[in-house]
Amino acid sequence: MSKPFSVNVSRFDPYKSYRFLVYFGTTTTPVAGVSKVTAMKRSSDVIEYKSGGDLIIRKGLGRTKYEPVTLERGVTQDTDFMDWANSAQVLDQGSPSASLANLRRELRITLLNEGGQPVHQYLVHRCWVSEFQALGDLDAGASAIAIEHIKIENEGWEHDPSVTEPKET
User: Fold this and answer.
1) Nearest CA to 23 among 123, 134, 104?
2) Quick one: which of 35, 62, 81, 115 could link to 45 by a disulfide (CB 3.0–4.6 Å)?
């Protein structure tokens, strides 16, 4: 006879990828209407070396690179994307009102569960806008919405351990 089927009660279903909020800096108000955030990815160089008479090639950890993150949303009256992207343009043109303080920002990406409660949060450090698309393709024959996006360079990200799955009561 086979053993009866058992259920792993400590298993959790994965979170859905369509429930999230994005924050610029330390603000408590999320950026309006963000509909897509590209993957947060990092990779490290591999350094190969041999030592002494050893025939085995060893592998060591090299420099770590963080890929840019792209935020996408429908065009609205909110100017957060444009204002941040313009801060780099104004700085590049040597404007006397330009300030490095407006160029780099911290970014927070918060993943929500089905109940809308924060369950994971990532902090993305020293971000700046390297690409801004103010308006996508316009097509009178389509029924799509107008999209804007920013590509954000960063100097690393980390998981914020202070945000965890809420306990059921």
Assistant:
1) 123
2) 62
Specify if 8 maps to a domain. Answer: no
Domain assignment present for residue 61? The answer is yes
Distances from the Cα of 30 to the Cαs of 14, 27, 74, 160, 166, in angstroms?
A: 23, 7, 15, 17, 20
pLDDT tens for residues 75-106? 989 888 898 888 877 655 555 555 566 789 99
69-74 and 58-66 strand pairing:
unpaired
Residues facing residue 27 across a β-bridge? none
pTM: 0.78
Say if 12 falls within a structural domain.
no
Q: How many structural domains comprise the chain? A: 1
Whether 6 maps to a domain, the answer reads no
Closest CA to 154 of 91, 74, 69, 96: 69
